[in-house]
Amino acid sequence: MARNLSGKTALVTGASAGIGKAIVKNLVDHGLNVIATGRREAALDALVSKYGTDRVAGIAGDLNDGEFVAELVASASHVDILVSNAGVLKYAPILDLTYDDIEEMVHTNVLGTFRITHEIAKAMVERGRGHIIVMTSTAAREVYPLGSIYCATKHALSAFANALRIELQAKGVKVSEIAPGMVDTDIRESSDHPDVIAALSARKFEPLTPEEVARAVTFALLSSDNCANDLIELRPRGAAS
Ligand SMILES: NC(=O)c1ccc[n+]([C@@H]2O[C@H](COP(=O)([O-])OP(=O)(O)OC[C@H]3O[C@@H](n4cnc5c(N)ncnc54)[C@H](OP(=O)(O)O)[C@@H]3O)[C@@H](O)[C@H]2O)c1
Fold first, then answer.
1. Mutual orientation of helices 113-127 and 66-76 as an angle, nearest 10°?
2. Looking at the predicted structure, is the pLDDT value of residue 22 above 70?
3. What is the Cα–Cα distance from 11 to 32, expressed in whole angstroms?
4. Which has fewest Cβ within 10 Å: 35, 54, 176, 232?
5. pLDDT of 1 strictly over 80
6. Nearest in space to 175 (alpha carbons), one of 214, 116, 129
7. Is the CB of residue 84 less than 8 Å from the CB of residue 117?
8. How much is the pLDDT for 240?
9. Where are the alpha helices (DSSP H) in the chain?
């Protein structure tokens, strides 16, 4: 039997924009209470105003800041569901990426995601239940030109999700990886290299919508107790490689 999500609580990272914002809406629509986090406080406040303080709480901060993560964990360690979704992307030819670009992607997509997921996973194991959703990408399965370090970070995140699943499955915690292809969000805005702009404008398919990815998240969460959606890959039609 599909699980009833109503009344459960979820922590969603990267909730201030794009896919995370759509996930918050979808979870609220399914009756969950949501703790939404991201750095942009005004965007989180807008979610709280839209859905009400009884359904959404916003906690603003940087996942690369250990003190902030400790505060977030103190307020969110009780959650039934963690959606580890925050991430950054900078596309450029590998030799044109700056060290700052590389560091930001590795810090946010790998270390920042590991830290919050690790802490919330410990609390779930203590209670003997929980579901962790890890947002990777098709970039976790393939390496493509202009996406080098982003692909490396998503490969690392996928390995982390697999490791969590293997070790926590006997402790009542499910781990699902959601791996979308291109989604229509602002994530590519900082990728202004002319090769990237040319490649993006030559694309012959429509990106996925954030809502389509949010529905995949909810599909994984709704699976019955003995059914584990380990990996959901979704691509825009026409983008298979
Ligand atoms: N769009 C795509 O084509 C695509 C495809 C596959 C996978 N994904 C993955 O989906 C996830 C969401 O991406 P998106 O497309 O929705 O991008 P987006 O619109 O740029 O949203 C990224 C989210 O991550 C948060 N974030 C970034 N750095 C953070 C930090 N240091 N601390 C806390 N929060 C941080 C941002 O919040 P603040 O800026 O407010 O901090 C924002 O809410 C990412 O993991 C991305 O890799 C995206």
1. 30
2. yes
3. 10
4. 54
5. no
6. 129
7. yes
8. 85
9. 18-29, 41-51, 66-76, 99-105, 113-127, 148-168, 194-201, 210-222
DSSP 3-state of 175: strand
CB-count burial class (<10 Å; 0-12, 13-18, 19+) for 56: buried
Q: What is the spatial distance between Cα 191 and Cα 209, in angstroms, rounded to a whole number? A: 20
Measuring CA to CA, which residue among 160, 51, 169 is closest to residue 114? 160
Model pLDDT for residues 96-154, shown as the tens digit of each residue: 999 999 999 999 999 999 999 999 999 999 999 999 999 999 999 999 999 999 999 99
Answer yes or no: is pLDDT of 241 > 90.
no
Q: Give the Cα separation of 39 and 19 in Å (integer).
A: 15
Cβ proximity of 225 and 5 under 8 Å: no
pTM over 0.85: yes
Q: How far apart are CA 204 and CA 182, in angstroms?
A: 12
Asked if 105 and 157 count as a contact pair (C-beta separation under 8 A), the reply is no
Cα(1) to ligand 1 centroid in Å equals: 33
Residue from 155, 156, 149 nearest 104 by CA: 149
Supply the pLDDT for residue 49. Answer: 98
Which CATH number applies to 9-234?
Answer: 3.40.50.720
Q: Rounded to a whole number, what is the distance in angstroms from the first to the last CA of the chain? A: 35
Q: Which atom of ligand 1 is nearest to the CA of 44?
A: 40
CA–centroid distance, 135 to ligand 1, in Å, is 9
The best mutation among 62, 111, 114, 187 to test binding of ligand 1, ranked by most ligand atoms within 8 Å of the C-beta, falls on 187
